[in-house]
Amino acid sequence: MSETESGHYFLAADTGGTFTDIAVQQPNGELFVWKVPSTPEAPDDAVLTGVTEAFDEIGASLENVQHFVHGTTVATNTVLTRTGARVGLLTTKGFRDILRIGWQARPSLYDQYQRNPEPLVAVEDIREIDERMSSEGEILKSLDPEEIRKAYEDLVEAGVDVIVVSFLNAYTNAQHEREAIAELSKLGDLELFAASLLSPEIREFERTSTGAINAYIQPKISNYIARLQDGASKAGIGAPLWIMQSNGGLISPQNAEQEAARTILSGLAGGVTGAASWARMLGMKNVVSFDIGGTSTDIAMIRDGEPDETQLAEIGGLPLRMPAIDVHTIGAGGGSIAWRDSGGGLRMGPHSAGAVPGPVAYDQGGEELTVTDAHLVLGRLGEELLGGRFKLNKEAALRRMEVFAEEVGLSVPETAEGMIRVINATMARGVRKVSVERGVDTRNCDLMAFGGAGPLHAAELLAELDMRSAVIPPQPGIASAVGMLDAPQRHDYSSAVFYRQGDDLPVRDQLFYGLLDQADELDVSERAEYGFFVDARYAGQSFELTIDHADDWDKLREIFDQAHLERYGFADPDAKMEIVVLRLVVTDRVAQGTQLQPTKETAVGEEPKPLQEREVYFDGEWQKTPVYRRTDLVPEQSYVGPMILEQFDSTILVRPQQQARQDERGFLHLQKVEA
């Protein structure tokens, strides 16, 4: 066996809408990245193809894989395309319409035609059970097993695939939900879920919605994971598979099958996890994670190396009450389509050309101009991507742009630049959403830009938002897969409580005893870390903030007031504080060696020579611009734009009056040139 083949390899695969990305950390610490076209009908096919090709390229055996991580969009797409299981719901008598009524909020206040999304459970598949639990957990009306049996028979006859049980106030006492599940399990072999086991917290609509989402996607997730594990085993991968969760941690396949809802934002979390790790590595305080793919841009705020989290995510307009990285997604990506509104104004997205037919330049039958076509016409993109494996048809894009430019009434380059400016404005609003609207000035932020198209827009966002710098990681087009290599195993536990400021507050281990008891069942190493948090609010408020736990009210109040001030711009010294949820987070690094340290892949000593020069359009004029191979840059040397840097997985734009410096770890730092 050669030196290249020996040792342990850490492997990550991230499924995207257009490409499936593969990242391999080799025994010497170096990273190898690979891309293959995604296979939406069977995503595991692309994963296995990409993994096999990647190991063929580096001349290593898949038997040496020690750690295998996967980020999947199967759960997301199942909800968005409404292709999940038929779900039956047992709920408390009188609450049949809880999913349909929801918050009673209109999705668009002034649009009388826009409607809330349809629930995942059809009204004819809901059965009401005459039981009742008080808000204090006292049984007011006991459960009747015969009623449960009758409901099961009705739902089986109706043809449901899965049953979820969500009873009123089960977050305070889940006895009835447990009894119902026990009774149902005697009657057949349908998959069964209790909402209180997935989300044992206040708010019935969100809790029931979470249970419904989990039941809806579970069969598809279970089948997908089984196929992927079987394929990986046949390919020779002996390492256990880990699935990326929405919270930025890893979960075992067995847990992912039972709690499938935890993977809803799996595909988005890897990049943010990587960006947070790199922010810590580079010593950056406030970082905006900026991930542009073919269809969307995913934006997240990272403070002191930790991404903002939310306890209430959303998918397809449906609430999901589970811990998740707080990612703001907008319909703006490389495939976003240009169109004109009723007033003749130029608009971009949110609809996308996707992978098929894709942009006009893909030459796959696409007829709608996209952001990618605009970059190509402006000279910012070359006519070959992925090291020459993917060709772009510039002439086709130019012909279509000429037609559209005539409709708009501008020249061809003005139209293409207008398209970029419009999409950049949309992206800038997204960045302000996670920064300015949360009390963080963009002038005090660095932009961590990645994804296939992120480095093409980083320089423009840096200028528009007057940010401190834009940072491009070594493998930006595959950063989500790379970020997964650094993700730890993570388990979240929560329980509803009620303490008001002035009440006796038990010491930490007594307060969290029930959650610690659940965590005792985990198979974690001595390195496992335990995080203790509480959801707190001012008395009378409807929503909470999650803060670090402290053993006394004064310290808790100080932490909460500061968090409230940062988020909402004020604190209320006269209001009492309440604690309504306890949270325990257990993290454990799954295997030694996954702490990612990007290696230097840059030239040393000599000035780089451009691969070519081409005309690139900036601010109304064409400028001759050198094009370099990124790996030819000399570390710690500054280069003044305009310039373009090309690499296997992305293209980087540096605007005029900006400078670029690549550090010894391979991160590229863009800043404006000081006058």
Automatic annotation (TrEMBL):
Residues 12-181 form the Hydantoinase/oxoprolinase N-terminal domain. Residues 207-492 form the Hydantoinase A/oxoprolinase domain. InterPro entries: ACX-like_C, ATPase_NBD, Hydant_A_N, Hydantoinase_A, Oxoprolinase-like. Residues 533-672 form the Acetophenone carboxylase-like C-terminal domain. Pfam families: Hydant_A_C, Hydant_A_N, Hydantoinase_A. PANTHER family: 5-OXOPROLINASE RELATED (PTHR11365), HYPOTHETICAL 5-OXOPROLINASE (EUROFUNG)-RELATED (PTHR11365:SF23). This is Hydantoinase/oxoprolinase family protein. It comes from Micrococcoides hystricis.
